[in-house]
Structure formats: structure tokens, C-alpha cells
Amino acid sequence: MNNTLILQDCLEEFICQNELGEIKHQDAFEMFSILQITKESETSYDELSSCIVDGGLDGGIDSFIILVNDKAINSEDQLPEIKIIESSNIQIFINQSKYENSFKEGPINNLQSSMPIILDIDALEDILLERFNPLLVEKILLFRSIWRLCIKKKASINLKYTYSSKSNEICINKSFQSKVDQLIAFTKNNMNIDNIGFKLYSAKELLTIYSKQTSKELELKFKENPVPVSFRETEFGYIGIVALNDYYNFITNDGNSIRENIFENNIRHYQGAVDVNNNISLTLRNDNENDFWWLNNGITIIASNCRPLLKTLFLEDPQIVNGLQTSYTIGKYYSEPKNENRSILIKVIQSNNKKTIDKIISASNSQNPVPPSLLRATDDIQRDLEIYCLNKGYYYDRRKNYYKNKQKPANKIISIQNMAQAIEAILNYSPANARSKPTTLIKEEISYKKIFNPNIDFGAYLTCSIICQKVADFIKNNVNSDEKGIQRNFMYHLARVTVSFILCKHNYNSDEIARIREDSISIEKIKDANDFLAQVIYKYRESNPKENIINISKSNKFVTLLNDSLKIIFND
After folding, report:
1. What percent of the chain clears pLDDT 90, i.e. is strictly above it?
2. CA terminus-to-terminus distance, the chain
3. Which of 275, 290, 340, 410 has the most CB atoms in a 10 Å sphere around its CB?
4. CA–CA separation, 526 vs 116, rounded Å?
5. What 3-state DSSP class applies to 301?
6. Which residue from 565, 552, 527, 563 is spatially nearest to 432, judged by alpha carbons?
7. Do the Cβ atoms of 325 and 270 come closer than 8 Å?
8. Residues 6 or more apart from 497 whose CB is under 8 A from it?
9. Which InterPro entries does the record match to this protein (predicted)?
């Protein structure tokens, strides 16, 4: 039982480190396990929290994770931004997490019952809502959209069922394995793909992943000693030539898949068969008379530390901020071993200064028009918000996973998207927009500037985020499992109502929100707001019986009724 006991200690440390004291151990174990399962994808706490669908009518599924090129896809709002091509990496995780000491057949039985309807494209939204909770239904519809795109673009899908428990080690009987084999065979036949797997994670497997350190230092070999170029003591650089073979090894995991995490700060992902990439590919395949670096602008890498050793640089936390298209094209070119003598130009900059890094990222990607939404993290207001939140004991994660990688508490980390949704729901009285358009809020210039207004007290912004976090915790810990799936659809509505109940008024302003003390955001206030919201939902459904719960949560018509009802009880 040593593995189980050690896992329990690690789980307690996880709860303590992330300041999740009020969370139930089952919920903590669920988050802990899916963080381990997706560890190589560099997913964030917020992204994975949005993938959790457990509760009543969950069909035996605790979390439903969709990754496209290691980016979590959690809403239809993201679909227009997804560019799926034949080489895209699409991973689907259908997870079960049980805070139990053994693997049981019940969860497999549930999946065998649920998957036929999930994979039945003819089963429409209203039919799905008769079987599953709204959060799971949205994930199913999103999965189907991705599935269709993959078929059209001839891209492959990797679907993996996972089942985690506290069992000391994997121990199952023949009946269990037979049901797993049946589930895999059924999925293969109905999706017409071969990349289907089922992975069990006992305490032993989870501890193995947990103890494995994510490599933060990578080795980059140069043809000759890279030339150091000094600027100041803590910020300097190197320029050198790297053999294409060695660069390929640097950007891939053991010569296999691309290391997605080192491209996190490149503002564009791979654009596929566009003219530029086609030209790079033609040069790689056909022009052996000229060295590659003569014909290519090269690669820019930022690292927090550079450790030179002869013809090698050991780079800590490397980020390729310019040259992703070239890198991915090289990755495709080297899908088979090559007898290669050509090279690529590499520029390495050592810096820990966030302002400097942001300027480098922006300047390195300014050759071609870039949508403003892709550079939000470098805006002055985002930088200022980060500093403000730090001074208040919170971590504004304007650059994804920066604070997760520094092991800051999960419930103190706030992403740009979550901050925007909280502001839209509370300050702008638009919980339906916050619910239905999470990506659009910061993508479109008008809505972005309306949300992130430098003339508004940053205290109001932070308070909005804290209220949304406390509301999410309330739903997780105080709502019964049968209602969780529905209530999470109305999280932003509940946050907006909670503010009115705290201030005892329908209308409020940013200064009033900024003055709300954190200890006044009590469970009692949220519960009162929740009871009121439930009454309004019931009233709306009586008048609109044909409208399903997902559409209600996205409806501005419902928000109008909600606001009118608040005016009545607060007489303002």
C-alpha cells in the first residue's frame, strides 16, 4: 500500500500548495490526476477546470479534454481560430477519476452505455440534454465539430480513455479487460480511426508522472562556438550556426513530436501549406547547392539563462519567439532520417526582464500583419494589472502558465480570459456574453477596450475575478451533484447577482465593487443569490418551455429578465 499512502501525501501537498483547503478530496484528486495525464501538453489549471463535466447526468465521464496542437479547446467561440491541417496533433481525453482504492467495472459500464449516443452524430442537442448535463453536451458538440474538421482535412485524431484511482497498482480481472476491449473496438468502428487507447492510472503511474520533472534546460549544439554579444550584465546574446539535424533534435522530443511548450510565446502557430512554408519546404527538398541559412532569416530564441560549454549552449526555459513556421517545416522535412550538411542561423537572447521579452516577441513578429488579440499580453494595461495583482497577493497570468511553472497557488492565479469574463459579467452586466463568447471578448478590439479600461480602478477588476472564483468554489462544494452540471452554466450570472446581494442594489459602479472586502463575499450571500437565480430560471423556463438550458445561459433575453427581477427586489 506504499504507493497509495505516498499518493495521499502528494495530494495533501497539492491541496496545500494550491490553497485548495475547502475543496473535497475527490475533486482535488480529479484535478491532480488530469494535470498529471496532460503534463506534457503544458495545460493550465483554468483550461483543465473548464474540462470537468462530472456531477449528475455525466454519463460516467468526469472530464472531457480536447487538445489541438496542445492547446485546450473549451468553447465554440474558439472554433474560428482553429486551423486544422493534415499534420495537426488532435488529442481527445475522456477521463474518469475515482477517489477509491481499486478499479471497478461500473465506470466502464457507464461509458459503454454513453458512447453510442455521444458518437451518434444524428443525436441532436435536445436529445443529448435528455441524457447528459449541459456542460458535457457542450463538450460533445465541440468534439463533433473537431471530428468533422479532421475528416475534411485528413487529420488524425488520438482518442484516449483514462481511468485514475488510488489503487496501489493496476489490478483488474478478465471481465474488466473484456469490457475495455469492447469499448475500444466499438469506438474504432464508429469513428473509423485506429488511434484509440484506454489507459489506467493507479497510484504507481500517477506518482511516476508526478515525480518526473519537466525539463527546463535544453541542449543546443552549434557547428562552431556561438559568438557571444554583450549588452549588459544580465541581458546579452549569442549568434551561431546550427546543423539542421541538431536543430531538429532540439525542437523535438527524442526526434518524434514537436516540443510544443518551447513555442508557447510565438504568437502564431503553424500555418500549414501557405506560400512561405511551401517555399521553405522546396528549399529544404531541392536546393542542396546553397546552405539553408543563406536563404532563411533564422530563428530567435529567448532563454532565462544560457550556459555555454564548448560548441553547446544549455538553455534554461527556452522559448522560440520567431521562426515557428521554419521550425515546423523542418520538423516535417525530417520525418525520415536525412543525410544533411546544411545549417540554420540561430539568435539566442538571455533575459528575465518581462518588458524586454514582450518587446522582443512583438518586434520579432512585426514583419507581417498580426491581429491585435495575439499581442494582448504585451499591452501596458496587462503589465500594470499583473503588478497590481502581485501587490495584492494574486498572480495575473497574462503569459500562460508563467505562474503555474513557478508553482504559485492555483486558486490565486488569474488568466487574461477569466479576468475578461469576470469583468464582462459583473461590471458590464453581461453574464450571457461572458458565458458564450469567452474568446471573442479579448479578440475584438471594441469589446477588449471596453473591458480593459485603464481609467477603472484595478481593484474592481481583481474583485470581479475573486467573486467569480468564490462562486465557482460554491458550486463545486455546496451544490449537489445532480444540479452541478446546470449550475456551472450560470456561474457568471450567479457572480453578477451576488454583487447585487452584497451591495443590496441592482445598479452599481466600479468604485463600489472595488470597495467590496473579500470577507464580505460570504457563502451565505452567494447562497441567497443562488436561490434567487434559481427562481428566475424557473420563471423563464415556464414562459419559454422549448428553450434548452444551454441556450438560456447564453441568452441576453434571460439577462433582461434577471435584471428586471433584481430591480424589483432592490427597488432601484
Report:
1. 52
2. 62
3. 410
4. 39
5. strand
6. 552
7. yes
8. 529, 530, 532, 533, 562, 566
9. AIPR_C
